């Protein structure tokens, strides 16, 4: 097989059609290594999936984004329509084709960002923390993330740069002061078959597929079919400004939450900056931050609001354990929504849908 890449630092040669997994702790440099690999490949001969979701799109509808690469290769309009319909049905996004790409919930953006590559892929794919693996793809695949190593020909395990940074297995001292007589949030059929109750001070992990935007519905960014009660108040149709005083929502995609140019524009206290690892970034422009640093910034902004509930969508980021301990000490109710079990051991219980 033809060799397409030599990674001398890792004593690894990657050949055409092989699959390489880059894994490691949070903030270990997976994205940087993937970006470095991209600079070693011939220009315009690979597709790159960015972890920063909006960087993957052009302005327009979902259909226009799916058609973009096909149109660049002068494929006929009839074939383009056929391919879009086929892949949209396969990944259950056909109802979103006429939706503006920037109006989609984060979960759907994650799906679209990957299938717009898979609809007409190059012979090499570089995927930074994809939502799922393209199992039908037969070209060269280089992926970052926590996937099954047996599915790959090569695996690079990056070390923790801090050595003693927290992990999901670390012991976090939590008071776990829960009032089981007081339901702070009661959810009835928020989507079909999804009902649960969260008690004051509780930490609950909601395990669900990424395509089910439960977090967006809880926070009021997507329409809920059932009922959401905050204590005894029905907030199902409450305006976002009022609901946001009750539920502080940390979105999976930080770019959907950022409307300032610099970290200092967030007016975040020094103790919260330190908690989120941002003390040295006060004067930095937001667009110079990494994806995970942006997520820490949006987390810090939500913590400053001191809401009785904090809702975190896809909480797989550095410092989360310390943030959880901080919220626990303040008596804040915490809800996680994720397709991953990573932080479930730190929670009081989990619900699986």
TrEMBL record:
<dbReference type="Pfam" id="PF00005">
    <property type="entry name" value="ABC_tran"/>
</dbReference>
<dbReference type="InterPro" id="IPR003439">
    <property type="entry name" value="ABC_transporter-like_ATP-bd"/>
</dbReference>
<keyword id="KW-0547">Nucleotide-binding</keyword>
<keyword id="KW-0813">Transport</keyword>
<protein>
    <recommendedName>
        <fullName>ABC transporter domain-containing protein</fullName>
    </recommendedName>
</protein>
<dbReference type="InterPro" id="IPR050095">
    <property type="entry name" value="ECF_ABC_transporter_ATP-bd"/>
</dbReference>
<keyword id="KW-0067">ATP-binding</keyword>
<keyword id="KW-1003">Cell membrane</keyword>
<dbReference type="InterPro" id="IPR027417">
    <property type="entry name" value="P-loop_NTPase"/>
</dbReference>
<comment type="similarity">
    <text>Belongs to the ABC transporter superfamily.</text>
</comment>
<keyword id="KW-1278">Translocase</keyword>
<keyword id="KW-0472">Membrane</keyword>
<feature type="domain" description="ABC transporter">
    <location>
        <begin position="9"/>
        <end position="131"/>
    </location>
</feature>
